[in-house]
Sequence to fold (538 residues):
Amino acid sequence: MLSARSARVRDARQLHVGKFRRIRGEFLAEGPQAVREAIEAGAVVEVLVADARDRLVAEVAAAARARLPIHRLDDAALAAVATTQSPQGIVAVCRWAPGTLAEVLAEAGPGQVVLAHEMADPGNAGALVRVADAAGVRAVALSDRSVDPTNPKCVRATAGSLFHLPVVAAGETIAALEALRAAGYRTLATDVTTESVDLFAAERDGLLVGRIAWVLGNEAHGLPPEVRAAVDHVVRIPILGRAESLNLATAAAVCCYAAARAAAAPAGA
Amino acid sequence: MLSARSARVRDARQLHVGKFRRIRGEFLAEGPQAVREAIEAGAVVEVLVADARDRLVAEVAAAARARLPIHRLDDAALAAVATTQSPQGIVAVCRWAPGTLAEVLAEAGPGQVVLAHEMADPGNAGALVRVADAAGVRAVALSDRSVDPTNPKCVRATAGSLFHLPVVAAGETIAALEALRAAGYRTLATDVTTESVDLFAAERDGLLVGRIAWVLGNEAHGLPPEVRAAVDHVVRIPILGRAESLNLATAAAVCCYAAARAAAAPAGA
Fold:
């Protein structure tokens, strides 16, 4: 039974801090669902479990025990490792090996990629990864100066999806756009500008089939002019009521599902 | 200049509590955007403004001054009235007069309504109202045992949309479904069950045009069997990757925009 002062618990707790996550290439997944997904993805280094009163925690701990290092924590140690107010009894130290944008682009065939430009909020980034996963998107690429996707708040907001699809570092947005276009992706920025194409019209015109890269702006500042100028089309989600905008994850849901729908039943079919 | 102990500030602060909001039929809108929307909607009783260093706060205060009671607060009074950590300088006491589901149903013509069954989380409810507004939905109806839409967290999450479309009390869900069907609405529950219809197929089959009511379940428990049995169709958003589900607001965004798209270009057109 590890206490809050044990070296192993201190090492795990270090992963609350982005600098140590980067240096060690490790991060934390909390709660039985996330830990189960992490184990299935082969991402887990070790499992830390408190008294497993919860049935789901006990199940996941039993599955881990067969093939991974597992350590018991007392309640204070769990509270020290967890980043939530009401920790769910189990935490995994995971390795972060997200692959590269080049690997994603080397995959053949039609499909969608989401490129987020300087995404700042971990909750938004996590919600975006979850939406992308649901819509069957191939990968989420985060530009330089975006939030760290292994931030605990982001990991939690992905609801397990961080372990389902590549979430890769894209470098500078303009260079990433060039790589996407060279790989045959049509680059579509979502933004509200006068010169933008209506999403419904874009679908009717067949712009949403094939290899599609959605380019999403920063929550507060949107996309800078040089990014808007570098994409194939700027697409506007029609606002049919009087809302000013949609939030990032809901906008991504509308766009990615429009392309998924178009792929399932291409225009003119 | 009102202090935190003035009667007016104490009265406003009372509206942090749901019971007093219900008794008084009043609630608070915070921040210059929300207060501006509330003024435009004719919902404001009085405006409370702290030292207006912020340009937008000063603008909204000036617009209010022409036609509404407005009171200056010191910083402590603002902190007492506001429910956010970093209050944005201006708060409005608003009256809550949401209308009824019957009034919504009396509106003629095609359109969408969202009926939320026992929605528990104010952030989700607010995000839902914002999505519904963006997608041009006619009204959001909340069943009995749903969260109070004038909860400050919900008001904030609507990003002003609470003042754009009716958010009405629907009573018991089953009775609301009967009223919707009597008014010619096709009732579509979104849920993941084996017998459900794929959203893309529902659109191809023309189920998304006309008068459409989306029925959304509780965040944790979904829809009870008697509600699923009482709707015309249970519609499933296809999960194309490995996510377990979408959150409520993103699911609503996908459904409401699918119907908006279908209305803009009906199947077979």
Q: What stands out?
A: The longest helix of chain B spans residues 248-264.
